């Protein structure tokens, strides 16, 4: 009996164990329940604020200034703004993208100021603007300008009133010294060694019984240096007429030849020696740069002039001409405003008129009241400008150091 009860207990325990194992296996084979998806909502970026559009002052009516404060989500807040797009529209026309502005960089200004001046604006037309704020997820928000804005032009740019004042002062100084020169009053001009050597060079050629060679550069009359060279030729030709010295003027442009002939003819006539003038003393060689240099060199080597003048616009041929003149022992006087050629002339010539000395030569040599007065007036104006630069630099330095509280930038600014 006891054995039978023991077998029954073992059977019950085995059945319970099998039941537990079956439930465990079923739980492992069952798939987990799927979770319900949660909807994620990405809020659009905060729009820009304080949008203002106004006509640009002191222009021709083709520009509008646009200002706004950046989005609160640009550099702060959600900090997800990628860019701003500014659009312009006119009644009855399609909207135009004016510009795209990137998000603010670290330390940037939160106030954006731009100008719509890329074209398409008409004087007097009315325009509306909107700014689209776009985040990195593609979301956007917009701010529209309340009302419209119309560009208009002005007759005067009062921001440049200082330039008008400077021009008035310059004109006054020039007129003052011209009147002073016309009254016969003495006007001091700084002596220039190269100009004082003109008489010496022509006098030496006369004493040696040789000719004077004058080269007015290789460019046409559209270059101011060529014009200045022709004016100086008038003074040199007067001296050759006075001293009955042969003059030779080879040129590389037909218009220069015509003008040089007229200048020489007038000079010989004013000196009372029209019979000494010959048309072929001013003659054309060629337009080609180095062919012209070769032709002038040939004249030098054949005729061996005692004085050579190089007054005008020169390029690479400058040193070729000057070295050839130096080899024949001629006294050489050069004048040019070409910075690259001045060192060559200084090296190979006896005298060189540098930059403004070359342009001032006509006033020095002719002593014409208008030219002398203009030169003196410009010198005074340059002196005033130099004083203004020194004073302005000193005041700005003191302003930075905190010694003074005012600035001369608005007064001295150009534009």
CATH architecture of the largest domain: 3-Layer(aba) Sandwich
Mean of residue pLDDT?
Answer: 87
Please give the radius of gyration in angstroms.
Answer: 43 Å
Outline the biggest β-sheet: 6 strands, parallel
CATH fold call of the largest domain: Rossmann fold
Series of secondary-structure elements, N-terminal to C-terminal = HEEEEEEEHHEHEHEHEHEHEHHH
Neighbour order of strands in the largest sheet: 10-9-8-11-12-13
- The CA-CA distance between the termini, in Å, is 124 Å
Number of helices: 11
Can you tell me the CATH class of the largest domain? Alpha Beta
**Shape annotation:** elongated
Total tally of structural domains: 3
SS-based class: alpha/beta
Strand content: 15-25%
Helix content, binned percent: 40-55%
Count all strands and give the number: 13
Uncertain runs are none
Layout of SSEs?
Elements: H1 2-29, E1 49-55, E2 64-69, E3 81-90, E4 96-102, E5 111-116, E6 127-135, E7 140-144, H2 161-182, H3 193-208, E8 212-215, H4 224-243, E9 247-251, H5 254-270, E10 282-284, H6 289-303, E11 307-311, H7 317-327, E12 331-336, H8 342-348, E13 351-354, H9 356-366, H10 369-401, H11 409-412
Parallel strand pairs: 8-9, 8-11, 9-10, 11-12, 12-13
Antiparallel strand pairs: 1-2, 2-5, 3-4, 3-6, 6-7
Features:
6-stranded parallel sheet; 44% helix; Immunoglobulin-like; 415 residues; alpha/beta; Rossmann fold; 19% strand
Can you walk through the features of this model?
This protein has 415 residues and is of the alpha/beta class. The chain has three domains: 49-144, Sandwich (Immunoglobulin-like), CATH 2.60.40.10; 158-182 and 384-412, no CATH class; 193-367, Rossmann fold, CATH 3.40.50. The protein contains eleven helices and 13 strands. α5 (254-270) links the parallel β9 (247-251) and β10. α3 (193-208) packs across α4 (224-243) and α4 (224-243) runs parallel beside α9 (356-366). The chain is elongated and about 150 Å long.
């Amino acid at each position: 009996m006891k054995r039978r009860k023991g077998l029954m207990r073992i059977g019950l325990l085995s059945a319970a164990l099998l039941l537990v194992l079956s439930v465990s296996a079923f739980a492992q084979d069952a798939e987990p329940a799927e979770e319900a998806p949660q909807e994620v909502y990405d809020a659009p970026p905060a729009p820009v604020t304080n949008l203002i559009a106004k006509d640009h002052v002191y222009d021709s009516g083709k520009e509008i200034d646009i200002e706004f404060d950046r989005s609160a989500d640009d550099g702060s807040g959600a900090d997800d703004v990628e860019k701003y797009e500014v659009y312009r529209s006119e009644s009855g026309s399609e909207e135009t993208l004016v510009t795209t502005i990137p998000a603010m960089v670290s330390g940037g200004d939160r106030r954006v100021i731009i100008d719509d001046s890329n074209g398409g604006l008409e004087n007097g037309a009315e325009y509306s603007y909107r700014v689209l704020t776009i985040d990195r997820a593609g979301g956007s928000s917009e701010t529209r300008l309340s009302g419209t804005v119309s560009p208009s032009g002005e007759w005067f740019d009062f921001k440049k009133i200082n330039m008008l004042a400077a021009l008035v002062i310059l004109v006054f100084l020039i007129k003052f010294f011209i009147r002073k020169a016309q009254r016969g009053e003495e006007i001091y001009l700084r002596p220039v060694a190269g100009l004082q050597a003109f008489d010496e060079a022509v006098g030496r050629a006369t004493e040696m019984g040789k000719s004077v060679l004058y080269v007015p550069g290789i460019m046409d009359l559209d270059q101011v240096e060529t014009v200045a060279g022709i004016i100086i030729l008038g003074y040199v030709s007067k001296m050759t007429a006075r001293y009955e010295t042969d003059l030779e003027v080879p040129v590389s442009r037909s218009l220069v030849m015509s003008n040089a002939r007229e200048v020489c003819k007038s000079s010989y006539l004013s000196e009372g020696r029209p019979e000494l003038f010959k048309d072929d003393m001013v003659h054309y060689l060629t337009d080609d740069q180095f062919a012209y240099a070769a032709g002038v060199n040939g004249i030098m080597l054949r005729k061996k002039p005692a004085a050579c003048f190089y007054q005008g616009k020169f390029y690479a041929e400058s040193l070729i001409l000057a070295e050839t003149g130096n080899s024949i022992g001629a006294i050489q006087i050069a004048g040019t405003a070409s910075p690259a050629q001045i060192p060559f002339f200084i090296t190979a010539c006896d005298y060189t008129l540098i930059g403004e000395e070359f342009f001032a030569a006509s006033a020095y040599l002719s002593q014409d009241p208008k030219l002398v007065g203009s030169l003196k007036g410009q010198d005074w104006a340059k002196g005033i400008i130099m004083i203004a630069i020194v004073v302005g630099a000193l005041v700005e330095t003191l302003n930075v150091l905190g010694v003074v509280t005012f600035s001369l930038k608005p007064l001295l600014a150009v534009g």
